[in-house]
Amino acid sequence: MHGFHRRPSAQRTLRRLALAGTAALTLFAVPAPAAIAAVAEPAPNQDAAVVAGENAVGAGGVNATRITQTTAWICPDLSRARPDVIQSWMVFSGTTQLTEDWLLCAGIDGLTPNTVYTVSIQVGDVPASGDPFRYEGDVTFRTQAVVVAPPVTVQDITATSATVCAPDVIRPAIPYRWVVFIGPEKVTESGSPCQPVEGLQPETEYTLTLKIAPASAPDEELTSEGDVTFTTLPDDTPPALSYSLKGAATLKTLVKGSLPLVGSLDAVTFDTESPAFSADLFLEESTGALVALGFLPVTAKVLILPTAPLVGTLENGVLQGVQMARITIPNVSFFGITIAGGANCQAKQVSSIALKSVAPTFQPETGGTLAGSFAISNLAGCGGLTGLISPLTAGKGNAIMLNLTPNSETPQST
After folding, report:
1. How far is CA 12 from CA 30, 73, 89, 96, 410, in A?
2. Phi-psi bin for 69: left (phi > 0), alpha (psi -120 to 50), beta?
3. Are 117 and 19 spatial neighbours (Cβ–Cβ below 8 Å)?
4. I need a surface site. Which of 26, 46, 56, 88 has the fewest CB within 10 A?
5. By the 8 A CB rule, do 253 and 395 touch?
């Protein structure tokens, strides 16, 4: 460039020093970039106003550019150079000379991220005339801050589950798979950046690691997106209740009589956000002494076999529900002689048993009595006398009553 000459002593000049309150700097003479873009006027010379990583122009046109977390380029205003003399430029921090002489721009490294620096340039003629150095200008700039990648996040935490989500960053537009680990154990994976994790324990601290790889890549190519630590919520689900029961089913068809019932009502769970409840009903096989057609004594073994959980509501103190069940008749005898029954002897249709608490207020902690009714459809599979037995047992309006007694492990009210 016209008017500038490099002296042999300035081919590569290095000097390190510690600026007050900053990291050590290394300044080195380098050729100027092909073009140094013009920059805006500098912000007020106050630390808070100096934007991290932003090019800066100071007094005398001295500028700082190409600023990173640890480096910057310092350049004079070349339009102020004198074409009629050889000039030597020096960089200073305060009164400390950072480099003996250099031409054009100086690269500085060893800087501290997000830190404000002020450096000045002085110029001298070669050979020196008058003052050896003349103040040319200074510039204040701030190095870039360290960029912290967005963290892995967790949401929708419950007592037994949570959803782990990958950082919201731009990735190449290819299919990925995300894998969640607890320690070395892989617990779930899919093509979604948000992974639900089930089967956790209440009030337990977990650290989950989320890893990513292209969808077709093996596990060996998984790279970590980061960790997230959280604690699951307490389990506020009420404990399931359990009852033993005794009662009776009363037949009101052409066969009349009572069948004693013994069994249990287990896993009684009440929903905390609604009046709904569910339970598992079990009834033992019952044997009853019945009367057919008003005068024929028969003995029947009957099994009420639930086909689904008992479901219903407990609302305003009233418990009511529906139990779907299959009525089976293993044996029917007349004066000790089996006349019908068998493993396949059963009602053709499932019965719907409607139950409702008898007391004005049903208290789950103390139990109570449930009463209801049910119908029995025509029978099938009961042997050669099926056609005779079925009309006697089929019919509606049969009654049922169940007395519930809490088992010892059922929590009591305090």
Report:
1. 8, 15, 14, 19, 86
2. alpha
3. yes
4. 46
5. yes
Q: List CB contacts of 120: < 8 A, sequence separation 6 or more.
A: 62, 91, 92, 93, 135, 136, 137, 138, 139
Least confident of 7-11, 129-133, 204-208, 368-372: 7-11
DSSP annotation string for 362-384? -BTTTBEEEEEEEEE--EES--T
Q: Give the pLDDT of residue 127.
A: 63
The two three-digit tokens of residue 167, written as one number? 């950082």
Burial of 6 (0-12, 13-18, 19+ CB in 10 A): middle
Residues 341, 346, 347, 353: is their CA dihedral positive or negative? Answer: positive
- Model pLDDT for residues 278-294, shown as the tens digit of each residue: 999 999 999 998 998 88
Beta strands in 110-215 (DSSP E): 116-126, 134-142, 153-155, 162-165, 176-182, 185-190, 194-197, 205-214
∠ CA 334-337-338, rounded to 5°: 90
Predicted confidence at residue 273, as pLDDT, reads 75
Q: What is the pLDDT of residues 31-46, one digit of tens each?
A: 333 222 222 333 334 4
Token pair recorded at residue 378: 């025509």
Amino acid occupying residue 238: P
| Secondary structure of residue 49 in the 3-state scheme | helix
How far is Cα 292 from Cα 1, in angstroms, rounded to an integer?
A: 123
Which whole-number Å values give the CA distances from 238 to 264, 387, 403, in the listed order?
19, 49, 23
- The set of residues, in sequence order, having a beta carbon less than 8 Å from that of 37 and lying 6+ positions away, is 55, 65
SS3 content of the chain, % helix, strand, coil (to 5): 5, 50, 40
Q: Tell me how far apart the alpha carbons of residues 47 and 129 are, in angstroms, rounded to a whole number.
A: 37
Q: Say how far apart CA 137 and CA 20 lie, in whole Å.
A: 20
The angle at the Cα of 137, spanning 73 to 64, to the nearest 5 degrees, equals 20
Q: 299 - beta bridge partners? A: 289, 333
Contact residues for 247 (Cβ-Cβ < 8 A; gap 6+) = 260, 261, 400, 401, 402, 403
